User: Fold this.
Amino acid sequence: MLAVKFSGRWDDSMEKDRDGNIFLDQDSDSFMILVDYLRMRMNNQLKQVPNTHRPVPTYKLCSMLEYYNLLPGVYPQTWVGGESPLLFTYEEIAYGTVILSSKEGVKANALHPYRLLATPEWLEFTIEFDKGASGAVGWICCKDEGKNTKWCRSFDEVVSGSLFLNIEERTVYGPTSVLEQNMRINHTESSTKVICGRSRIDGQMEYSIEVGDNAKVEATISSNLLPVIQFSGKVTVSGIKYDVDTLPTGSKNVYNLNYVD
Assistant:
């Protein structure tokens, strides 16, 4: 949206001051953080800004980025592997859309630890398993925010305080029990698209799993969970919706130095 705004096509309709300068009704400190970030990206040989130099997410900054559809650009998907060396590759194929591909013959684990990364949390993400790809996806409880690899598991049984779908078993595992079985999924015959969501209700988080024409499966869980994927084959991650409203208000021009690279 920002690029379109300054493409020249809309100059006549854009608000200007008495000297003819284009006027943007945005917080100046937040806009300068964006300008600094874009400058760093322009100056980087790979046109990327290291995680350690991304701006601290605040409500003022991120609400502006959301308005201009720049959140995926400033805070891109960062998936941490549970194994060393990493068992999957990462490729951004479109703005806000990435493909994760496991190494042949293995199941890879990927976690998005946004609190360790100091990025806005997610309200929703969409995973599409390619035809023939297998695995599980959902929300997992990590008391250490994903600092170690204890979150890696087989995802074929209940994990306390978590919610996820195993597409091979066609089963949704809830925080204390199996919530749904025999879902209408056939991962060997077609791709499988899964929407994982969450919302706040009376101070607690309600997490959900939705796939195809199956009924949405929901669970209310008191703790904050992290997005997790286990996969063999190729999966596409897109449709990220960010939880901007819970961020702190401030908009200081500072950068976070506690990211996981």
Q: What stands out?
A: The first helix runs from residue 2 to 5. The longest strand covers residues 192-201. The radius of gyration is 20 Å. Residues 251-261 have pLDDT under 50 and may be disordered.
